[in-house]
Amino acid sequence: MTRFSLLPTILVLSCFIGCVSIGPMTVARDRLDYTSAISESWKRQTLLNLVKLRYADAPVFLDVESIISQYGVQTQLEFELGWFSLPSSNSQIVTGNGAYAERPTVTMLPCWGRSSPGV
Known about the structure:
Radius of gyration: 27 Å
Largest sheet: 2 strands, antiparallel
Distance between the termini: 78 Å
Helix content: 25-40%
Number of domains: 1
Low-confidence stretches: 115-119
Number of helices: 2
Strand order of the largest sheet: 1-4
Mean pLDDT: 76
C-alpha cells in the first residue's frame, strides 16, 4: 500500500477503537487472578494468626467483601495539514495518544469471633 492509501485506512480504523469493549475479554483472566491472590493472602493471614496465637497475641482476620474492577481505554487522533505560499513553510502534522487504566477497588471487613446461634 502506498502512504496515501494507508493513511485514510488508519484514520477510519482509529475512529472505531472507542467502540471496542474490553470487559468480557478480561472476566475469566481477572477471576482467576483475583481468586489466586485472595487464596494466597488468606494462607498468609492464617499462618500469621497461628504465630500470634503461639505468642498469646489476638488473631485478627480480614475478609474480602467485594472486588470491583474498572477499565478504561481512551484514544485521540489529530490530523492537520497546511500549505502556505512560502516554500519552506508547508506543514503536515499527525499526532495521536492513548491511555489504558485499570482501577480495582477491594473492600475488606474484619471478621470478629462469630458464634453460631444456639451455642
